[in-house]
Amino acid sequence: PLKCKIGPSILNADLSNLYAESQKLLDSGADYLHLDVMDGHFVPNLTLGHPVVKCLRNRIRNTFFEAHMMVDEPERWVEPMADAGISQYTFHVEATKDVIPLCRKIKEAGMKVGIALKPGTGIEAIRQYVDNADMILVMTVEPGFGGQKFISDMMPKVQWLRYNYPLLDIEVDGGVGLNTITACAEAGANMIVAGTAIIDAVDQRAVIASLRETVES
Ligand code: DX5
Ligand code: ZN
Q1: CATH code of the domain containing 41
Q2: What does the angle CA 97 – CA 100 – CA 101 come to, to the nearest 5 degrees?
Q3: How many angstroms separate the alpha carbon of residue 128 from the centre of ligand 2?
Q4: CB 138 within 8 A of CB 106
Q5: Measured in angstroms, how far is the CA atom of residue 144 from the centroid of ligand 2?
Q6: Domain span at residue 209?
Q7: pLDDT single digits (tens) 69-114
Q8: What's the pLDDT score for residue 1?
Q9: What whole-number distance in Å separates Cα of residue 10 and Cα of residue 195?
Q10: Of 34, 102, 187, 199, which cross-links 158 as Cys (Cβ 3.0–4.6 Å)?
Q11: Atom of ligand 1 nearest to the CA of 68
C-alpha cells in the first residue's frame, strides 16, 4: 500500500520565523514541507523564492522539500531551485507548453517531478503526462492564498487518477483539514498538504496525527 504523507504548507505561518516555524512542524510529525512559490503573475500574490529556500535548506538538512511553483515560465527556476536544495519541483500544467521537456529538465537537475492542475483544469490536460511525473497535485482551491474553502468537486479527478494509477503519488492542496480530509482519503489521495488547518492549531502534533490517522484508516 502507498505511504500516506502529511506536508504542511508554511504559507500562513509567521514567515519572519521561517526556520523555527518549519522545525516546529517537523518536530510535530510532518513528513515533508510544501513550500508555496508565487510570482505575482501566475497567481495574484507573492511569497518566497529560491534564495529563501536555500537559507532554509542550510538549517534543515534531511527533510523532503516540495516547491509548489505557482509561476509563469516554470522552466526558469529549475536550476536555481535544485541548487537551493529542493527535492521535488511541482509546476502547473497551465504554465507551460512543453511539459515533457520540462519534466526531463527537472529530473536532470536531480529533483522529482510534480505536475499540478488548477480547479478549472480537467484531467485530460495531464493524462498524457502522468507517466513523466512522480506525483500529480490536484488543487482543491484556486491557487494564490491560504485559508480558502475546499472544493469537493475536485474529488472525481483524484478518483480517476487513483483508479488508473494505483501506485501514483497523488497530492491534494487547498482547504484540507480535519473536516475535508476524509473525502480526499476516500478518493485516493496519499499526499496531504494542509496550511491553515495545521498552522492555526494550538496543538499541531495532534492535528497532524489526526490527519494521518484518517488517511491511513
Ligand atoms: C494555495 C497554496 C496552498 C495553501 C494551502 O495557493 O498552494 O498550499 O497554502 O493553505 P490552506 O490549507 O489554508 O488552504
Ligand atoms: Zn501549495
Answers
A1: 3.20.20.70
A2: 85
A3: 23
A4: no
A5: 8
A6: 5-216
A7: 999 999 999 999 999 999 999 999 999 999 999 999 999 999 999 9
A8: 72
A9: 6
A10: 187
A11: 7
CA distance 162 to 188: 6
φ and ψ of 35, to 5 deg: -105, 115
- The burial class, CB within 10 Å (0-12 / 13-18 / 19+), for 124 is exposed
Total domains in the fold of the chain: 1
* ipTM entry: 0.98
Q: How high is the mean pLDDT of the chain?
A: 97
- Which atom of ligand 1 is nearest the CA belonging to 11? 9
User: What stretch of H or E contains 187?
Assistant: helix 181-187
Closest CA to 185 of 149, 158, 205: 158
Please choose from 148, 151, 172 the residue to mutate so as to test ligand 1's pocket, defined by most ligand atoms within 8 A of CB.
Answer: 148
